[in-house]
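pinning this so it doesn't scroll away 📌
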Amino acid sequence: MFGYRAGLGKLSILAVFVLLTTRTVGAVTLWNGTGANDSTSWSQLGADQTIIPQSFTATSTDGVSISGSLAGNSGLVVISGSSWTSIPPTTTFPAGDTLVWTFDNNGTNLGSAPLTLGFGKAVLAGGATIQADFLGVFTASVEAFNGNSLLGTEAVVSDSNGDPVFIGVQDTAADITSLVFDLKLMGCADLSCGNSDFAVDNLISAVPGPIVGAGLPGLILAGVGLLGWWRGRRKIA
């Protein structure tokens, strides 16, 4: 028996104009999804309960290639409202959403995260809604990389029900080439109590566009924040 959860994103509007200047490595900050202009649906990975190999690929709505990899042997495709259902008082992901479950389906019954998601084009920001495979408080974390260089790490703690949370990072320049997601239960020190065992909804990102100005390169991050996420729980016979 395994549980999933998802959080509710807040609607907001933000426009940010940033000229490329000297920056400090590790300057990423927590991102709430505002300004997202691209997303990647995991429905490309197959039908409900399709096994996800250790390395996999997908393509975003805007055609950006996404490369995924799991630390464990495999993962699993699950559908919210089908193989993934809620147990009150937890909430669920929107019905019909396709999720990546970092569960090793090869008999180990352990989490297969960290989950690494790489971008074919560097982005300003990226994140996803995440929920542990067990009830209770958990901490979701994401590391942002530019190639092999760590730009920074952020973490979000769930509520007492363990409802899903959105976890994302943003930078002042479009230099994020990959994100590494992981999760740990409060007070948990190893995989036996739920570390690295979670579900992830669509990957979203802020992809930059060129700005004309005084011969200097620039970036613009603009848009209307979106995203409602719900969280749930699933059972597999």
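📌 and the second one:
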Amino acid sequence: MTLEQKYQTLQNILKDMGSVAVAYSGGVDSTFLLKVAYDILKDNAIGILAVSPSFPSREYQRAVETVGLIGARLEIIQTNEMDNPEYTSNPVNRCYFCKSELFERIAEISASGRYRNMVDGSNMDDLSDYRPGLKAIREKGVRSPLQEAGLTKTEIRELSRALGLPTWDKDALACLSSRFPFGEKIELWKLKMVDQAETYLSTLGFHNIRARHSGKSVKIEVDPSEIDRLLSTEIRIPLLHFFKEIGYTTISVDLEGYQPGKLSKSNKKEKNENAGIIHNSF
């Protein structure tokens, strides 16, 4: 199908649903889905923004403002995955417990009868990656209209740009819990450190930021095109001081930079953890 045909298919899917509650994060996919759903269904579409300690604080205001631009109704909920030891123990299927909690909460809103369908922004690219959260999505009866329409991330960005959405070139989003190696317990103080580290990098204008946390060590990922700037004297010296102030004792940089799916790939194939890293030697 052409991109235009896929877009029309998506519109038809949403029209047939009649009403939807969209799991909204402010990212590229869920923003696009909410925009199209609102264009088709108006007040029969609502965005549900779930906030928890694992949601990057720097994203909250942006997410709210973007919904304002769309014009859709937004409901903000608190999720409590941190109360679940199966989640905080950080197993390889951690995302399953997070998604289960999320859609249990959204189901409560759907049960009111006004929004009969729960939908999420999973796209075709997600099918080729390890995503245990998809199991929870299927179990909870959530539909993924972008997948049903056959849309890829690149196509969603292209359509988002055509619709004038500010998220068309937005960085890839992931919850802060994804910054920890599997098996390391997720705790509030660790999430706060990661959030502070990434917010600092964001205020400096870096993109595709990841602060990979392990114990009191952190490995920084930014867009590959920005690594030279990250290592420049004017950036690295104050950065080193700030990261030590918030509690990190060892700071390193991944010289490959951010790459989509890197964590999943590293779990499938063992790698030398020190490859491509500069340890504390900014």
